[in-house]
Amino acid sequence: MEIELTINDESTTVAVESDDDLATVLRRNGYTGVKCGCDSGVCGASKVFVDGEVKMACGVDAQNVDDSEIETIEALGTQDDLHPIQEAFVDHFAVQCGFCIPGMIIEAKSLLANNPDPTEAEVRQAIDDNLCRCTGYQKSVDAILDAADRMHGDRSVAADGGSRIDSCRPGDAARDGDSDE
Amino acid sequence: MSDDTNDPQPDGGTASKPTSEEPPEFEEHPLEWDEPENNNKAPDERKSVSQPAEKFDDRKLVTGQAKYTADYEERFPDLAHAAVVRSEVPHGRVTAVDTTEAEALDGVYAVLTPWSDAVPDAKYTSAGQSYPEPSPWDMNVLNKHVRYIGDPIAAVAAEDASTAAAAADAIEVEYEEYDHVVDPEEAFDGDAPQLFADDEVENKIVGHDYSRNRMSNIEGEIGDVEAALEREDVHVHETEWETIRQSHAQIEKHTSLAYTDEDDRKVLITSTQVPNHTRRQLAHLFDIPIRDIRVKKPRVGGGFGGKQAMVVEPIPLALSLAADRPVMYEASRDEEFYAMRSRHPMKVRARTAVTDDGTIEAIDLYALSNTGAYGSHGMTVAGNVGSKPMPLYSKVPNARFEADIIHTNTPQTGAMRGYGAPQGTLALEGHLDEVARDLDFDPIEFRRQHYMEVGDLDEIAGMMGGEGAERRIRSCGLDECIERGKEAIGWDDLEQPPEPHRHRGIGMALSAQGTGVAGDELGAAQIMMNEDGSFHLQVGGVDIGTGADTAFIQIAAEVLGCDEDDIIVKSSDTDNTPFDYGAYASSTTYISGMAVKKAAEDAKERILEWASRMLDEPAENLETRDGEVYSEESGEAVTLEDVGYESVYGHDDREHILGKGTHSTEESPPPFAAQFVDVTVDEQTGEFEVNQLVVAVDCGVAINPGMAEGQVEGANHMSFEMAVSEGITVDEQGRAEVSDFDEYGLPSATETPPIESLLVETHEPTGPFGAKSVAEVPTNTVPPALSNAIREAVGVRINEMPVTAEKIKAALDQK
User: Fold this and answer.
1) Residue B80 CB partners (closer than 8 Å, separation 6+)
2) B302, A86: Cβ pair inside 8 Å?
3) What total of structural domains would you count in chain B?
4) What ipTM was reported for this prediction?
5) pLDDT tens, B665-724?
6) From the Swiss-Prot or TrEMBL record, what is one GO molecular function term (chain B) (predicted)?
7) Same domain, B212 and B284
8) Which of residues 691-750 of B touch A (CB under 8 A)?
9) Cβ <8 Å between B565 and A82
10) Boundary-marking domain end, from B664, B683, B706
11) B763 belongs to a structural domain
């Protein structure tokens, strides 16, 4: 079957098999920033916004999100214009292998939208189901607390460019892949 | 700091006390190290090294643009997906595999069994190690004799993952079942079922005795431990310790994509720590020349040793050959727990002989290691149970270590961060703490009497021979690690909780590791200059998320005097980067980084030669800095870009400036750590709360302090898990009882205490710019420090991991 989705502000129609979860559908359509670490909707790597609410995309039946608005990590900053949360993760060395980081950043964005000035305990609670094997969470927590300052204080940090690779977002002309909308 | 340093080493840390006798000469391990002048720069002279350079791939990682193996899927429109049929019996022989139904399914491209032509018959080891391999060849890609629930028997390639899974489900396997054994002591002693007939193993390892399910026995000794234990003037203490079967739990599952490219080359894009070893192993298995295989490592979502094994690669390769199309195999999370690798569960016995004045006369460790169904890293991991922690106490005259490595019908074990040192460190640091308390010595001072100092010849590391060979200690920051750790945790002013039944205590433990495998590693790099003054750095070293590529860039930039952004790093592609042993044994910065440094120096020599001609000044007057070559004498300068253009487009002469460097060494300097754990225990219930972890690490010079701290914190988190989580438990069939993260106790953000990492800088003259390793040593220390903290808080000793409220309560009830 086909479902209608708005993914990162672009309306699109995607093919969905009966047993597809949302993570599979998003990845198949080029949104590979959505990561799958557990197969069971518990590790947090596949987090996206579904109609404004954070969900683990691998635990969402794709057929149930027809007509939904989806926001993935690809909708946040770009490499030369990072979102303040992304900047903070980079500046705090909070990223090691990076596999869990898109999901953690999505969750951090949700947290800071609802609670602009969280305590450390609130940050830890917010990312409690974003499992990370690399960091011990210390630097991720520090980064999210700093991101709160950057977003709501007056400490916004200019991004300074840096190397980038071609976007893998659908519709991006620079892309040479095969997954079209 | 201790005040016994009468010959302080400016950068190397604590010096040894002078002895009345002249120290003997050890020509092969001189204290003086012929260090290149540029290797020992003061902190304020370093432009790239020690600076917080941005991790070069971070922007890709935080924006979701980085490519891990599974993300290559979209580049292969005809990609097939694999699924594997695994043994459902703990021990038996496959007598028949019915694939009819699977083959009849729409969208199935290939079905393989142990009898298929595309499946190699050769025996091999999955351990990704040097050659000749120090591990037995005891398994096949698909097995007829199955030895654990999870052994691969058949494999399928199909148009999508769900079709592959359905086809795998449709395969019927018939077995002749054998008796099985899951307990290592039972497997070793008595009439246990035998897992391997003698002729089922090639490349057998020292001390093997398959009639008793022993894959290997190793031992080493200096002095005479038994004689010391029998002395009348010593107290003999004996304790036993037990550790968990810990999962690597890297969030990216083992994933591997195989295809044949347009030049008929077999290509693996794979999440591995050991591209070159994987290439060699695949060549052996498939009887394909090494040159015809290409192993390419994209971004890797964590390894921790779990990907220092060729765990999945042969299956997609065999399937791609059979199906004549690209095949990707991504293990399921369930398979990660039962069919990939884990840390060896062990029992370790510690014995010491200690005199009344607190002199340790002898240390004896014995480890019984459960290697599971196959040998893999079993022998070398067990060796490190002794050879990593015991050298901490290099002043102890008699030391002995022995290990038996035993097969059971349980999931496979392998390399894991710390590599045996966590098990040995628990036993040794828990034991010494208990002895100190028993004999009424201060636990720290007791350790301090015996631990390593600069100048010591460490013979204990060499007592096992080969790996971790005898070495001279040229940098040691143990004293500073302890002092800074004590201060950070608040050692001297600990407040007790108001409730009388709750008690707070701090425990500490020390640790040492190695940096690379002494005499058994190689790293290589080459660097080519572009005409715009930038550089391409090609290095075999393997970044699995640690930031190694960034450290390589910083090392090269430091040598070349350019900005980090002017260096493009290409790593870990066997077609396009030089040889490297891979990311293991804490070797990457030390071995591969030194190769990068040499390559950069080689290129720099040519740059100075060209600049010398351009400036008409002798090369020895020239130096590079901030993207320029300048002359101290004349003040004249040319840019690296000028040199780049001139060298390739020059009127009279032309040269592409290329530098190369290879590095191997007999050295393996230990990094050190001092761990502190602050715990509050409720003596009524046994419930405990870890308030804080502090770990201070001497890693020499940190190439990138932010990244190094990250390594320390992540390692400490893994160590904390080893202390408080059950790991992978198995039932009486040897079946893993864990199938997802909910069941596996990977501590989450709220379950992890704050971790404070302290970098204690020393200077290791054998390492690039003074660096030694950082990423493993903090993996070893939380289990003993937590056990010691609970002992301090409520007076009971927990010897068996994980520490639980039930165990504490039971011990309190017995007190």
Assistant:
1) B109, B110, B157, B158, B159, B164, B319, B320, B323, B325, B326, B327, B328
2) no
3) 3
4) 0.94
5) 999 999 999 999 999 999 999 999 999 999 999 999 999 999 999 999 999 999 999 999
6) iron ion binding
7) yes
8) 704, 706-707, 709-711, 713-718, 720, 740-742, 746, 748-750
9) no
10) B664
11) yes
